[in-house]
């Protein structure tokens, strides 16, 4: 039996660790050839490429700072050129700059918007040039876009909320071409940046209905569904994979 994504090519931005790495591996296991971008952790990116190749798929890693619009556009074009097509774009890369609003300067604002908002727009714009019917654009947002329970998250929540509008607008625009655009909002997820055994983990878990963190693979499962044929009538939607954080 063939895999769901056989013959497809996917690009995952910020794919060398955490949720991005889990997404890249899941898409590969579903049959896709997978490219990923990374900013600093070349070692992790290289290791992930080897894991994808070991699963029998083509893989490549591209160094690209998501804050660099030209680099993001070039990365998308290179993946399409190297693999001959592009079917799935997962806009996963993000920055997490938090603190009291009076202590956040324009530098933090500009980088947050550049990575969390402009990069998904630029990458989606570039991907749209290569995608055909059946294409998938999947944005990775945050539960903080719908429920901001801690002080200091105004800038981050603003940037992730912008993805709701981007997803809906692109979903409307791309629909006539048979391309879907959707948003996944993870809740507390066990990553290096927010470990499930961290000092605030018990309190954070308490805000969820399930009382625990997600594993990165939980988020990857939702992305895999949106990347496949079974989600063909889902577009412009937000899927909260947050253990009930926002209910």
TrEMBL record:
UniProt domain Ketoreductase: residue ranges: 8-207
Short name of one Pfam family: adh_short_C2
InterPro entries: KR_dom (IPR057326), NAD(P)-bd_dom_sf (IPR036291), Sc_DH/Rdtase_CS (IPR020904), SDR_fam (IPR002347)
SUPFAM superfamilies, per the entry: NAD(P)-binding Rossmann-fold domains (SSF51735)
Signal sequence range: none
Entry keyword set: Oxidoreductase
Key word Coiled coil present: no
Listed GO MF terms: oxidoreductase activity
Protein family per UniProt: Belongs to the short-chain dehydrogenases/reductases (SDR) family.
Protein name: 3-oxoacyl-[acyl-carrier protein] reductase
């Amino acid at each position: 039996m063939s895999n769901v994504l056989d013959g497809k090519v996917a690009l995952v931005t910020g794919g060398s660790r955490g949720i991005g790495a889990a997404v890249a591996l899941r898409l590969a296991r579903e049959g896709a050839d997978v490219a990923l971008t990374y900013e600093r952790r070349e070692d992790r990116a290289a290791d992930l490429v080897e894991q994808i190749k070991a699963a029998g798929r083509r893989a490549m890693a591209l160094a690209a700072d998501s804050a660099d619009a030209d680099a993001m556009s070039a990365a998308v074009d290179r993946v399409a050129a190297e693999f001959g097509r592009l079917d799935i774009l997962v806009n996963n890369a993000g920055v997490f700059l938090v603190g009291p609003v009076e202590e956040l300067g324009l530098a933090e604002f500009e980088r947050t918007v550049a990575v969390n908002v402009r990069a998904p727009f630029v990458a989606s714009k570039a991907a749209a040039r290569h995608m055909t019917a059946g294409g998938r654009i999947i944005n990775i947002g945050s539960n903080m876009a719908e429920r901001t329970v801690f002080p200091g998250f105004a800038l981050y929540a603003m940037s992730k909320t912008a993805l709701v509008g981007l997803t809906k607008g692109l979903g409307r625009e791309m629909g006539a071409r048979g391309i879907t655009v959707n948003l996944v909002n993870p809740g507390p997820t066990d990553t290096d940046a927010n470990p499930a055994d961290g000092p605030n983990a018990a309190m954070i878990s308490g805000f969820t209905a399930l009382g625990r963190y997600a594993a990165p693979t939980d988020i990857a499962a939702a992305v895999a569904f949106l990347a496949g044929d079974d989600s063909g009538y889902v577009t412009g939607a937000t899927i909260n994979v947050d253990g009930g954080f926002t209910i």
